[in-house]
Amino acid sequence: FGQDPAIFRAGRYGLGPHTTALLEKHGFMVDTSLAPRTSFAVEGGPDFAACDYDTFWFGRSRRVLELPLCRSVTGWGGHPAEHAYRWLEGAESNHRTRHLAGLLARMRCAERITLSPEGNDATAAARLVGSLLRRGRNVLALSLHSSSLRVGQNPYVRNKADLHLFYDQFSAILDTLAERFGVCFVASLELPGRLSVG
Questions:
Q1: Weakest mean pLDDT among 53-62, 84-93, 175-184
Q2: Residue 65 CB contacts under 8 Å (≥ 6 apart), including other chains
């Protein structure tokens, strides 16, 4: 594409003990690989269940910004419900405990939400964003798979009706972010400079 890549996202199991050093070495400015409140341990992958959503810097020779998947557990149950949800969804859980986690989510007592039009609507996005802003998280990473922009490329958009719904959800989330929360939209590569100021 005529320029070196500057943003990295590992596949689901792509983070390893040497990833951070390689990102520094090859000039990456932003990593987006961390998936908060998510464990892939059952499938042999990394466990990020104990991590909540927040941006941070890492690196020994130079700073790289971690911009995780914008995902968190929120709900009226507060911290106790969040801990219960994490335990029910944990690596040691089974079908029955996962069913209980689903019940907590349906009651909106504790639900894991991702800031994405994939499987979420503007109402869910608003619950997540409101919760994150109250906790002082003022950088919000909206994400989606590029394959969602074409029919039949992933489970989110299987047909033309799904594609129209996807665009409706995406538009509604963008509108909610702008109108209700007054967010400023910036490209990912602008963030390191903006967050370094002051």
A1: 84-93
A2: 29, 30, 31, 55, 56, 57, 191, 192, 195
Residue 177 pLDDT class (50, 70, 90 cuts): very high
CA–CA dist 76, 193 (Å, integer):
36
pTM, full prediction: 0.87
- Please name the helix (run of DSSP H) or strand (run of DSSP E) that holds residue 168, with its range, or none: helix 160-175
Count CA atoms within 13 Å of residue 110 on its CB side: 19
Distance CA 44, CA 91 (A): 10
Distance of alpha carbon 164 from alpha carbon 158, whole angstroms: 11
Count of CB atoms within 10 A of residue 41's CB? Answer: 14
- Please, what is the angle between helix 78-89 and helix 95-106, to 10°? 150
167, HSE (Cβ side, Cα atoms, 13 Å): 8
How far apart, in whole angstroms, are the C-alpha atoms of residue 174 and residue 186? 13
Q: Of the candidates 146, 110, 155, 148, which has an alpha carbon nearest to the alpha carbon of residue 128?
A: 110
The DSSP bridge partners found for residue 30 are 7, 65
